[in-house]
Design brief:
By secondary structure, this protein is of the alpha+beta class. Helix content is 47%, strand content 16%.
Amino acid sequence: MLEIPQDKPKIELPNILTELSLEDLRITGVESIIRNLWIQVKQKIEVSEIKKKLSQKFNLSNSSIERLISGRGSLPIRFAKEICEIWKKTCNPSQEKIKQIEEILDELSVFKGNSNSTPVELPKFLTPKLAYLIGSLRDGSLPEVYNNQYEVQFSQKNTEWLEHVIIPIIEDAFKIKTGTKSYGEQTPRVRIYSKPIYIFIKRFFEHPKRLQVMWEVPTLIRNSPAEIKKWFIRGFFDAEGEINIKQKRIVIHHSWNGQDPIVLKQLQKILLKNFGINSKISKPHKERKFPSFDLTMSKENVWSFYQKIGTSHPEKITKFRLWKSLS
């Protein structure tokens, strides 16, 4: 059985509703809360003028405003936040009550791209599992949005890794079902079509659209405890790493948009500072459009990496065991 990352430690992420409040997303699961806040507002003042302003601000008809307020559909995040602000100004609740409502909204909110899309949960904590997933995205991508399709994909030839490690983490983190697909001779991949997940990864883990050659180690990872960094590096290694038994070294490959491979330098610094592992970065060699670099570990640093970082990849597990048996 392949080792799947653990759930602890748990580092609280910034408030999702606050961070994504300006995004064109919807939430469900909190309709009754918003409806109750609106009822409290109506008990204080005449709301016809407020409804008119809501209609203008969100470009919605009066019937659409009524439908949203009455809880007969998922709510745009901005609309839900606006109702909360109106409630605060009108009802003058205590700070304790405001905090209570905000916590309930944060706890119950499930996210959608539009009213007909599949709802997903977004993680509230950065855990080793999530760190591993973000690291393993180095063998995946966030393609440019096309036809309003927000796609996140993980790709690799080894379907056992995709099916027994990556998919369980995705399904646990976002409470969705997914699977692997192959298209002709293309590399097998896991594809997720979800605007909330796409935006969550892009916003919280600083992944620009398009190419990985611009992705650095996310700030949240760099500022996390060593255990979180460990699982991010393991995911990165399982996606982009190689074990060369003959040359007695392990390598993490990466292409970069320029002659200074920032992401590998960041990994090199983390490995040395947090784990006492020395590594070297190779000179660039041409690979497709961008120069490719190698982060290499050899001799005793290989075994330090194996013991302190490890792998959850079936082929790499086998190779490490073979290497050990030959030592």
